[in-house]
Amino acid sequence: MKQNRSSLTASGIAIVRAIESERPAGERVCYDPYARRFVNGGLFHLIRFFDRIGYSERAGAGVMGFLAVRERHIDEHLQACLNEGLQQLVILGAGFDARAYRFDQLKQGVRVFEVDHPATQAVKLAKLRDVFGQVPGHVTFVPVDFNTQTLALRLFESGYDESLKTLFIWQGVTPYLTPEAVDSTLAFVVKHSAPGSSIIFDYLVPSILEDSAKHGEVKRMRRMRRVSGEGLVFGIPAGTVKAFLETRGFTQVHDADPTYLHDTYFTGANRDRRVADGYAIATAYVAVSARE
């Protein structure tokens, strides 16, 4: 992303959540009452218009569907972790994520850290003041400029406790990172979180990066890179994420591929909605042996 400007991708994802949240209760797969208030009104209405006339689906079949079920799938893992005694939550590349404000249990003794680029975080803090009248006190905001700072240094400086059972939410980030940056983050999770800690993140398969002609959304994002500063770089081959994470110190890996996501969340009135090929979500726990 551009150094002194809030992430365009963060705004776009919040708009998708806002659009999904407008669906009738029996049809929407995720609900975020704050998403609409985090984004520019004109941009929201423009994207909603394109979605309603079917342009979004023609331009990137199933992408909007994936973004909706991704929110739901991560919400469900977060709730499961809370039910199992989660002590600490780290949201990496938080953007306009509203989970810290949507889940009441996170306001009751769970330490919450939102990590993001300073420019995006500054905009979010202003939005939070508009929404709540002040910045909620149960969240610690950790601005990180990865050109000059490291995740480990900034988290520890901000009070992160590696002895606590922690969930790392890494949503909408890995495709924009180098392989070295992905490995560095996974290594931090393995070495600096307590037994029972886990990570959940979405990823792309390399084939859609290599054949952008068949994936209009990838082609558009590459064309817009000069404006957004956000380019798609990283992918994990289909069917290999289990081995990928196990070799990096994780266990109990679950790979939610497009078929799984569709069949789990697009049922009933939603059965004809699509989840884009080449998009998936991985969940994994820190292996005890990896910390020894």
Short description:
With 292 residues, this protein is α/β, with parallel strands linked by helices.
Keywords:
13 helices, 7 strands, alpha/beta, 292 residues, single chain
Helix-strand topology string: HHHHEHEHEHEHEHHHHEHE
Helix share, percent:
40-55%
Largest pleated sheet: 7 strands, mixed
The stretches of 5 or more residues where confidence is low (pLDDT under 50) are: 222-230
Distance between the termini: 37 Å
How many strand segments? Answer: 7
Class by SSE composition:
alpha/beta
Molecular shape: globular
Radius of gyration: 18 Å
Mean pLDDT: 89
Q: Compute the number of helices.
A: 13
Strand content: 5-15%
Strand arrangement in the largest pleated sheet:
3-2-1-4-5-7-6
